[in-house]
Amino acid sequence: MRAERGFTLIELLVVLVLLGIVGGIVTDLMLRQQRVAAESIERLGLQSRLRTGVVLLTTELHEATGASAGGDLLQLAPDSITYRAMRAFGIVCDVTPSRLLLREVPFHGVRRPQAGRDSILLFVEGDSSIATDDRWLPLPVTGTGSGTGCGGQAVLSLDTVLDTALVPLSAIHLETAARIFEIMQVRLYQSGGLFWLGARSVSAGETIQPVLGPLTGTGLALQYFDSAGGPTTVPAAVRTIEIGLRARSEHLVRSAAGAAPAALLQDSVLVRIGLRNAPPF
Model-level pTM? Predict the structure, then answer.
C-alpha cells in the first residue's frame, strides 16, 4: 500500500509567501477604507459647524436695523460684533409711565421677555407727515407678567420706567410697535489652546461661551460696508456685513494613500447679508 505524499518545505514556503501578500493587500485596503471614512466624518463635521455658524450669525444680524431705524449695531471689530439682538415683537395697547401692555395676539418671539436681561424699543412717531422725526425709544424691562387688559384681551405686562418729561404720554400712540431685545456679543476667542466662535449676553452680564468650533486662528472675519459698497467702521453707516468663517477638524487626519503625515482639515464659507430696513446699495 502506497503512503500519501505530504507537502515539501518549498511548497509550504510558497503558500506562506502568498498568504502574506494577500494579507498585506487586504490590510492595506482596510486601512485605506478606515482613512477615507475618518476623513469623511471630519469633513462632515466641518461642514456642519460652518452651516450652523452661518445660520446663527445671519439670523441674528439680519434682524439688526439700519441707522434710519435706530441703529442696532453697537461695537464693530474684525473678529467681534456687539449688537441689539431682537427677541420678540408686539403691539402696545396701553401705556403708563411705569408699564406697557402688549397684546398676546399678535406677539412673536423666540422666548418670553426677561426682566434685567431684556429691554424695549418703543416706536415713537412724531409728525405723521414727516418720516425723519420717528424714533425707537429704549426702555428697561424691570418686571413681567400676564393677564387681561385692553378691553378684556390677553396681554403681556412689561414693567418699565418712562420719563414723561422727555417723552409725554400724548406722543406715544396706542397700537404702536415694541421690540424686545438684549445686547449680545459674538466674537472669536481662544480657550484650551483652541479657537472658538463664542457668544454672550452683555445685558445679562454673562461670560463668553463657545457656540461652535474649533475654528482656525482667523476663524471669524467680519467686514462692514456702507450704502455705497465701501468699507466702514462706523456702526450707523453699516448697510451690509460680510461674514467669513474658517473651521478646522477636531483630529489629525491621514490621507487615504497614507504617504503624507496626518494633518488637520480646514474648510471655510463666506456670506454677505443686508441689515433689515437698510438697502445694501
Answer: 0.80
Helices in the chain by DSSP H: which ranges? 9-62
Q: How confident is the model at residue 281 (pLDDT cuts 50, 70, 90)?
A: very low
Kindly write down the DSSP assignment for every residue of 176-244, as one continuous string.
-EEEEEEEEEEEEEEETTEEEEEEEETTTTPPPEEEEEEEEEEEEEEEEE-TTS-B---GGG--EEEEE
* Rounded Cα–Cα distance for residues 75 and 59 (Å): 18
Residue 9, helix vs strand vs coil:
helix
DSSP code, position 86: E
Q: How far apart are CA 200 and CA 29, in angstroms?
A: 47
Encoded amino acid at 103, one letter? R
Q: With contact defined as beta carbons under 8 Å apart, do 238 and 73 qualify?
A: yes
In one-letter notation, the amino acid at residue 193 is G
Cell triple for 193: 489652546
In contact, 116 and 204? CB cutoff 8 Å = yes
Taking a C-beta distance cutoff of 8 angstroms, is the pair 121, 134 a contact? Answer: no
CA 230 to chain centre: 25
Within 8 A by CB and 6+ apart from 67, the residues are: 235, 236, 237, 238, 278
280 pLDDT more than 70: no
